[in-house]
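I am writing to request your help with a piece of structural work I have in hand. I set the record out below, with my sincere thanks for your time.
___
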Amino acid sequence: MDYDVVVAGAGPVGLMLACELRLAGVDVLVVERLTEPDLTIKAGSINLPTAEALYRRGLLPTLQEHQQRMLQQFARPAGGPAPAQMKRPPIAGHFGGILVGAGSVDFAGPEFRDAGPASSIFLIMQQTIEQVLAERAAELGVDVRRGVELTTFTADDNGVRVVLGEEEVSAGWLVGCDGGRSIVRKLAGFDFVGTDPEITGHQAMVELEGAENLTLGWHSTDTGIYAYGPIPGRILTVEFDGPPIDRDAPITAAELETSLRNVTGADVTITKVITATRFTDNARQATTYRLGRVLLAGDAAHVHSPFGGQGLNLGIGDAVNLGWKLAATIQGWAPDGLLDTYTTERHPIGEWVLDWTRAQITIMRPDRHARALRPVVADLLNTPDGATYLAKKLSGTWQRYDFGSDNDLVGTSAPDLEFADGTRLGDHLRAGKAVLFNLTDSPQLHNLAAPWSDRLHLVNTKPATPGAPTALLLRPDGHIAWTTDNDNLDGLAPALENWLGQPA
């Protein structure tokens, strides 16, 4: 084989997956048809699972620098300095353009786990994530080729032969991270089922005259939905007149101005388009994320409207879940069926995201029934219970994989425990390996885990966080595979075999 894995697509998902694979020692090639990164305006924030994933791989300091620059942009219209630190944004999020303040959210519940420093990261542009991951991939030695298009491939039980223009390479596996119109998905024959679009949306950064006629925030009108700000010149419109005739046609100032005037009724003139994109509410999902030696991740596996900013987060979650499992399969120590858990764990979360965005489209419609429902939902969401519900859903803290355990912690992302030696839990996940925390210096635990030492990092330390477990087994993606709060080690050996295979 020329490579262990070929990844199609060098967006955030493809780069995150490549970094995870390379961290595990896998030889990976990333190909991207675009010669330069796509600078079109996209997602502007990340949820907690994404922040945790990046923090656990040592990328927190870089992200903090980028976030501070973003905060300065937000502060500029008010004429004041950017805050030195912001623990959480003042807005918990929105549902179909209904804004919910963070002040109504009860953050004391157990669902809002202690994520440590990761909880300080939220205001990060998608292009920034792509830039940071591209730099990380270069540091790890990932082979990334831009301006190279995958045109076709053939796959069998032994591997994949991929045609890249006039070149052909062989690999053990192919992963499509090539977006909603994925050529990998289409050529492989994945079923892609869902619902048809009914909207045309625009999002853009522009220079305009008549900005004083627009109101900051999200607004529902008789002809659709619009948002203005919070960064000066950022506009978003939604019209319920069906999908665009040609999504690939150049977006002109006249088109954006017509849409903005139609939805707002305001006298505005767009004088310059800095960046712009069209979108729809086409909502579809692959019925499985794996067909033999071919897998899908990110938008290649699921598409939906961008409301709630779930797409980037969903794709990063796919990459972190898939990376270590595919690496284990390549290296020969994966237990039977490990790679298939990628679909069983990630598909339900993707399905939820599609329905979450469909529900928002329903309440955004300009018809009489939706307009009657909208204030009712707004009233509910702005109660403490409603705001907390929304915050849990948008933050991703509700996500838990079903490992068949009665323990409420098993299957969840681990809290960022503090230890007596000054480290935190996230510090021990940078190598991308499974970690077993022995927090009572138990020799029995050490001896039991020793046969897996080639694929397991054993940490002997003392907890500084009150009420911490006495032992904790984490998968490489940071999800809890087993835990105990006493000296009972029952279940540890089966958990090690279940996730790390047979001992060496």
In short: The chain has a mean pLDDT of 93. The chain has twelve helices and 22 strands.
